[in-house]
Write a structure and sequence with these properties.
Elements (H helix, E strand, L loop, with lengths): L1 E6 L5 H6 L8 H7 L3 E4 L8 H13 L6 E5 L2 E2 L18 H9 L4 E5 L1 H5 L12 E2 L3 E2 L2 E2 L16 E3 L6 H12 L15 H4 L10 H5 L66 E2 L2 E2 L8 H13 L3 H7 L17
Parallel strand pairs: 1-2, 1-3, 3-5, 5-9
Antiparallel strand pairs: 4-6, 7-8, 10-11
Helix pairs in contact: 3-4
């Protein structure tokens, strides 16, 4: 399968993330060995200038067949729908027009990252550039290609959302397409691949012991659970970040930062500081999914009353101050 990659308005962070895919031989060898031929990438391919434009024109015109179009970055439709806030260098043509032409030729279209999927950081606030996603504006269908768009193979835009998206999510989505294993039923309501979007960041969180006892961090350097005070949305965010960490070891909460649910539309404008938990009468507004508020409050009260001293003291420190007790395990 032949893959063509475009970069619209964004920071390039998803490409940087992809380069960190876990494979000793490198991501390009990994893709090639699985039958994926990278025709062109603006930051990673040798072809540039007139040579690159000629390649893109051949693909958009139908002379160069390709299978997968990956777009990274939000689509700038301003001013006034003209798209002229973002011209593809050397072409004189707005990037949105290139994307529309190429999407019409592709068998599959992938939105790489939350900016391309839903608008992301580019669309925050008044959005003077008219930034949006390929098939969504925030959580509403629409975007550049429109609600009814389907690629040649019959699927809508596949939103590999994340800010940045995980390299494994990109690679696994591409492999699923190569193997014919990705169908419309493989996508959730926001068109994210279910293999990662039906997980929660909370799964595998290294702070779960603190969460269970509601032993909460009071400041960012503390070891405790970040949900109650520090804005963490891990119990609500759809992703497998802690069971599939970056480079085998990293995630936001492992690095001491709250999960901001970057795989969902609108994450960039939560209505409160990212590192603060909004509360009503001292109760966090964002509670775990699928759990009635009354149950959570009752269980939280019980948990806090049973918190071991070790967990309570360690939760308020930047390093363990009390080690687990020495005790022989087994039947008593």
């Amino acid at each position: 399968m032949k893959l063509l990659w475009l970069q619209a308005s964004g920071c390039g962070g998803c490409t940087q993330s992809l380069l960190g895919a876990e494979n000793r031989s490198g991501v390009f060898t990994q893709l090639a060995s699985s039958g994926i031929d990278l025709l062109w990438h603006p930051g990673l391919s040798e072809a540039c200038g007139g040579e690159a434009l000629s390649l893109l024109e051949s693909a958009a015109g139908g002379d160069l067949a390709f299978d997968i179009l990956c777009v990274e970055g939000a689509l700038l439709r301003g001013p006034n729908g003209s798209g002229r806030f973002h011209i593809l260098s050397g072409s004189g043509t707005p990037m949105i027009h290139w994307v529309q032409r190429l999407a019409a030729r592709a068998r599959h279209v992938l939105a790489i990252g939350t900016c391309t999927a839903y608008g992301g950081v580019n669309a925050v606030g008044e959005n003077p550039t008219e930034a949006g996603g390929l098939q969504f504006d925030g959580d509403e269908h629409g975007g550049l290609l429109g609600k009814d768009f389907r690629a040649a193979a019959g699927l809508p835009v596949i939103n590999v959302a994340g800010c940045p998206t995980h390299p494994g999510w990109i690679v696994d989505t591409l492999f699923a397409l190569v193997g014919g294993a990705l169908t419309a039923e493989s996508l959730d309501g926001w068109q994210r691949p279910r293999f990662y979007a039906e997980q929660l960041v909370h799964h595998g969180c290294p702070r779960n012991e603190y969460y269970e006892f509601k032993a909460s961090a009071q400041k960012l350097s503390d070891l405790g659970c970040l949900m109650e005070n520090m804005g963490c949305k891990g119990t609500q965010a759809h992703a497998d970040c802690n069971t599939r960490p970056w480079n085998g070891a990293g995630s936001c909460v492992r690095g001491g930062f709250a999960c901001i649910s970057c795989t969902e539309p609108g994450f960039e404008d939560p209505g409160h500081p990212f590192m603060e938990t909004p509360k009503v009468a001292g109760i966090p507004i964002g509670l775990p999914l699928d759990m009635p508020k009354a149950w959570f409050i009752a269980l939280a009260a019980l948990s806090k009353s049973a918190t071991p001293k070790r967990v309570r003291e360690n939760s308020r420190s930047d390093h363990p101050v009390i080690a687990p007790a020495l005790r022989k395990t087994g039947p008593k």
